[in-house]
Amino acid sequence: MFDDRSPIYRQIADRIKADVLSGALQGDEQVMSTNQYAAFYRINPATAAKAFQQLVDEGVLYKKRGIGMFVSPAARDELRAQRRERFFADVVDPMVAEAKAIGIPLGDIVKRIDELERNA
Amino acid sequence: MRFPSRLLAAQIYFAGILWAAFYAVTTLITICIAIFGTLDRSVWEGATQVPRWFALFVGVALVREFLPLYIAHGQTRRQFGAQAAVTVALYAPVLSALLVVGYLLETLLYSVAGWTQELARPHLFASPTQVPLVFTEYLVEFLVWIVAGTFMGAAFYRWQGGGLLSIPFGIGLVVLGEAAIGADLRLPFISMPLGVVSTPTVLTALATGLGCFLLGLAMTWPIIRDVPLRNRLT
Amino acid sequence: MNIEVSGLRVNYGDVRAIDDMTFSLDGGKIYGLLGRNGSGKTTLMSVLAGFRRESGGTVRVGGHPVFENAAITREICLIRDAGETIDIDKVEDALYFAEWLRPHWDAAYAGELLDRFGLRRNMKVKEMSKGQRSALGVVVGLAGRSQLTMFDESYLGMDAPSRYAFYDALLADFMEHPRTIILSTHLIEEYSSLFEEVVIIDRGRLVLHEESQTLLSRGTSVTGPAGQVEAFTAGLTVLGAKRLGPTASAMVYGDLDEAQRRKAREAGLELGPIAMQDLFVHLTEGSGDAAPAVPAADASANPFGDAR
Q: Is C231 found in the same domain as C164?
């Protein structure tokens, strides 16, 4: 389920973000309640609530009083924009470092990307 | 204070079942003696030496089992003490009544079979059919033995081995009570007639019995009023 | 129900089981009470439940002293291994008295829980397995719906499916009937996600009281070349360090800001989370002298005081 090390609320928040990014959760769609989350993942409801609060603060979710939490319509685009911004730092740079460490010429990487692009 | 209905009901239910079994066994022994030997006295009279030990056990169990149960269910020691006192006060007459019924059933059996229901020991009563006297004698006896049990049970619960020191006082209570009904004292290794100490009447017996009961409660209360629950019963 | 413990001392004869303990809990949450064997967990809870009188200091639950206070103790339930509430002939007898003595007893729910744990009413308690006894304690504790409900290692002998059934029931019932719940446990890995706050005690003293998620976010493992690790952790609260050849790993307690994290990355250090169990082990291991040194003057950085 969750690894018990990094704070669970961050993991829940990350998972909901991933669902929003993949489209599994659509804009204005209601997400499960904190209690459902707590019961499902066997965690303290306050921890689940903390994850939701973080997502509300980040604008991913919005609250409808007395009804529940919903995905912000703009959430997907914003998350994509954020991820794009961090893509090179988070994904490409470590990959290049790894390639250097194990001796893969960068040209091979570019070639591979070209192949994938052609096959897509 | 709330009436201890369930505490009392549980005790009476248990006592009723035991009594039925005990009566059946006693009757069986009676019949065996009649068949294989000579039956010339009340067997139930002898049998009634046993229930007071049960009464002592009930007194011990009240403290050992029900005090922790009460505290763990959010009751105070004071609430438990009051409920236990009422329970004992009402339970002893029930036990006594069960023994009275035993005597009456025996009288019926003996008269049908044509046996003689002679008494072998000194009593407050001269015949098993003197119901008020029989009832009084065993009432006093049970009251005293139960509180002797709660007192010693409390001492052992609180101080474990140190509870040994309470035994002389417990015996003292019992001697006082037995003297009040003019009975023989029959404990392991000790047997002495107490009738000589007093010539009991119903009134002195009841008064002494009540006094012993209150004394026993008064001796138990200081032990349990702030007793910590044991972390583990050994 | 809120709980205030102030300067609490509990002695067993010459032995001091609790020594000058002070903390307060707001209530309405699930708390984890962690401590090694003999650290005073059972004693602390016994005092909170009025099972035992404090030797010194004060204990208030819902704003009132507890010991022999019927108005408060009726709202408190402590289920211990000693089995005070269940050690009576049969399962149905235990429920008979619980129903009669507990003001908020839910008999239907108790029946439901019995089924869930596979217990039958006619079972003799003395003949039940350790796990079944624990499960019966859980039934009595949950169905009592007490405002302050405490379970002292109420999983002993339970197999994994029963423990999960316990956690599920506890969470569901807590959400439906919010109340103050304190759980003591050695199974920190399994329990940690249930807690909203954690109280760690050691040798009768409070080590730490913290929101569990905050506690987790404060613990960081720093791994990398030994020299770099040493340089980076200088001046930080280091709970423990290990070394394997040229690589060292240190457990740091305290918030790391973004600048520090960047510095670590630049130095080729790997930062990772620490499991609650590991934090617990490092916060409570060793003798008092070997405990992590914390600058006494800087109270804000002191992980061993009541940070809340």
A: no
* Greater model confidence, B163 or C295: B163
User: What pLDDT, in 10s, does the model give residues B100-142?
Assistant: 999 999 999 999 998 988 888 888 888 899 999 999 999 999 9
Q: What percent of chain A has pLDDT over 90?
A: 62
Give the CATH class of A8-73.
mainly alpha
Q: In a 3-state reduction of DSSP, which class is residue B117?
A: coil
Provide the CATH number for the domain around residue C7. Answer: 3.40.50.300
Chain A: which residues have CB within 8 Å of chain C?
2, 4-9, 35, 38-39, 41-47, 50
* Same domain (yes/no): C194, C154: yes
| Nearest by CB: A42 against C168, C274, C277 | C168
State chain A's mean pLDDT as an integer: 89
Q: Does some domain include residue C158?
A: yes
Helices and strands of chain B, counted as H and E runs: 8, 2
pLDDT tens digits along C28-44: 999 999 999 999 999 99
Nearest chain C residue (CA) to B226 = C53
User: Containing H/E element for C197?
Assistant: strand C197-202
Which of the four pLDDT bands, split at 50, 70 and 90, describes residue C294? very low
Q: Tell me, yes or no, whether C67 lies in a domain.
A: yes
Whether residue C209 lies inside any domain: the answer is no
Taking CA–CA distances from A45, the nearest residue in chain C reads C175
Q: Which of C181, C203, C225 is the last residue of a domain?
A: C203
Q: Within 10 Å of residue B38's Cβ, how many Cβ atoms?
A: 8
Domain match, C191 and C141 both = yes
CATH of the domain at C264: 3.30.70.240
Chain B environment of C101 (Cβ under 8 Å): 69-70, 73-75
φ, ψ at B185 (rounded to 5°): -90, 120
Partner-chain contact C216 A43, CB within 8 Å: no
CB contacts of C102 in chain B (<8 Å) are 73-74
Domain hosting C218: range is 214-294
Whether C155 and C58 share a structural domain: yes
Q: Which two tokens stand for residue A6?
A: 């990094």
Q: Note whether A touches B: 3 CB pairs or more under 8 A.
A: no
Instruction: Decide: A66 and A30 in contact? Cβ < 8 Å.
Output: no
In C, which residues are within 8 Å of A4 by CB distance? 189, 192-193, 275-277
> How many domains does chain C contain in total?
2
Of C296 and C109, the one with more pLDDT: C109
From C203, C230, C255, give the residue that closes a domain: C203
Whether residue C181 is found in the same domain as residue C70: yes
The mean pLDDT of chain B is: 89
Interface residue C274 vs chain A (CB under 8 A)? yes
C22 min Cα distance to partner chain B (Å):
22
How far is C283 from C200, CA to CA, in rounded Å?
9
Residue C107 has pLDDT above 60, yes or no: yes
Does C303 reside within a domain? no
When computed from its CA atoms, the radius of gyration of chain A, rounded to whole angstroms, is 18
| Per-residue pLDDT, A10 | 84
Closest Cα to residue C79, out of C149, C27, C128? C149
pLDDT tens, residue by residue, C216-236: 888 999 999 999 999 999 989
If pLDDT is split at 50, 70 and 90, which confidence band does B199 have? low
The nearest CA of chain C is from the CA of B221 a distance in Å of 14
Domain boundaries, chain A: 8-73, 76-119
Residues C231 and C159 reside in one and the same domain: no
Q: Name chain C's partners: 3 or more CB pairs within 8 A.
A: A, B
Q: Please indicate whether, in this complex, the C-beta atoms of C174 and A45 are within 8 angstroms of each other.
A: yes
- Which residues are paired to C18 by β-bridges? C10
Mean pLDDT check: name the lowest of B18-22, B197-201, C155-159.
Answer: B197-201
H helix runs in chain C, sequence order: 41-48, 70-73, 91-101, 107-116, 130-143, 160-176, 188-191, 212-218, 226-233, 258-266, 276-284
Q: What is the ipTM of this complex?
A: 0.88
Q: Is there a contact between C51 and B71 if contact means CB atoms under 8 Å apart?
A: yes
